[in-house]
Design brief:
The chain is 24% helix and 20% strand. With 230 residues, it is α+β, with helices and mostly antiparallel strands. It has one domain: Glutaredoxin, CATH 3.40.30.10.
């Protein structure tokens, strides 16, 4: 089993002491096999610059409002059989960095299954996995009829790659990205315990599989194939 190197950010850990006790969400960045945790700080914003006509552009939000309908999923533990598989995932309503409404869960308008990927801008494992996922997409190897939605969570203005709105653009993220609330509302609702954290939902919003920690392109495909086959 791969060992985990926790990011050394005392300020972030101190902020999360109350959250850990209240929500069972441990704070840090996950490895390929082990559960670790998420961390968050007060919301920050970043400007998107000027519009083409010279007028100030809309200020981007780095955390957004998130509402949850339905009971949360059990916290994920890679050492146990996942009790969330087969359950209906909570319906999460939120916004992108530019405040475009985004919904995760529930019956998919496209009729497709959905891969939901929770990411933290400062997490090295997230930075490693995004290129792997993008490479699969560019090669046309992602399963046909699979939607992808990202959720930016655990924002830390003092950490690497802040703000996440610019980080996502720099990484070339190819899909929608929801901005989680500063209280980590979205990832907590889906039982996330580390980063990156991925959940596959069927077209009706039921959980087909969950995994935590970074993965290679081959490992991502194995997870997706196994989840979709169920």
């Amino acid at each position: 089993m791969t060992s985990i190197v926790f990011p050394r950010r005392p300020t972030v850990r101190h902020v999360l002491v109350g959250l850990v006790a209240a929500t069972l969400l441990v704070s840090a960045c996950g490895s390929s096999d082990d559960s670790t945790s998420a961390s968050g700080t007060p919301a920050e914003t970043a400007s998107s610059g000027a519009s083409p006509d010279g007028e100030p552009a809309q200020e981007l939000q780095q955390n957004g409002p998130v509402t949850v309908e339905g009971p949360p999923l059990d916290p994920f533990d890679s050492s146990l059989e996942d009790p969330a598989v087969g359950k209906t995932a909570p319906l999460i309503s939120g916004e992108s960095f530019d405040r475009t409404p985004i919904t995760v869960g529930g019956p998919a308008a496209s009729g497709n299954s959905t891969l939901v990927v929770f990411l933290a801008h400062w997490c090295p494992h997230c930075n490693d996995e995004i290129p792997e996922l993008l490479a699969l997409d560019e090669a046309g190897e992602l399963p046909e009829g699979l939607d992808v939605i990202g959720v930016s969570t655990a924002v830390d203005a003092s950490a690497e790659n802040y703000p996440p709105s610019e980080w996502v653009e720099d990484k070339g993220w190819a899909w929608q990205m929801m901005a989680d609330a500063e209280e980590l509302t979205a990832i907590r609702a889906y039982g996330g315990t580390s980063f990156p954290f991925s959940v596959v939902l069927d077209a009706d919003g039921n959980v087909l599989g969950r995994r935590a920690g970074s993965a290679t392109a081959a490992e991502i495909m194995a997870f997706l194939d196994g989840a979709l086959a169920s």
